[in-house]
Amino acid sequence: MQKEIIVIIGGPGTGKSTIIDGLVADGYCCYPEISRQVTLEAQKQGIEQLFLEKPLLFSEKLLEGRIKQFENAKQEPSEVVFIDRGIPDVVAYMDYIGDDYPDHFKTACEECKYSKIFLLPPWEEIYMSDGERYENFEQAKTIYSHLVETYRKYGYELIEVPKDTVSNRILYILDKI
């Protein structure tokens, strides 16, 4: 069987990390979202919101981490690896804020190709903001649109995961692979 590197995407607060946690509990190989880690590391250095204060530096760190996740996923002994957000997310967020970014961002999107992309739609009933998630729900919907546009631009077919219980969403994803 060919290695499946599967990405779960969606705007903020759509349940990505909860689904990843459920897949981990079920014994699947999963890589977590790294933006919180990047944010927390910057906060330790006195930068409260790196994405807001230095978006290009934040995005460079994310891109580097997501490329590393992709390369590591290729080496995993598991036939299926799930990742919370992918490389094109970095481009989508930079487009969302309207900032320019170097060409190597686009090159990474073209060279690191995932097997499948599962898309979680905006879901106001489960949306919550916290210390690392600064967007309101309206902004989350706009980010969702940028994600859809960006992933399609790089040739991905997006599989939308219905709003349902966590276990049913996981079953839906597993059924599609």
Automatic annotation (TrEMBL):
Source species, domain of life: Bacteria
Domain NadR/Ttd14 AAA: residue ranges: 6-169
InterPro entries linked: NadR/Ttd14_AAA_dom, P-loop_NTPase
Database matches in SUPFAM superfamilies: P-loop containing nucleoside triphosphate hydrolases
Short name of one Pfam family: AAA_28
Organism whose genome encodes this protein: Flavobacterium shii
GO molecular function annotations of the record: ATP binding
Keyword tags: ATP-binding, Nucleotide-binding
Coiled coil: none
Protein name in the entry: ATP-binding protein
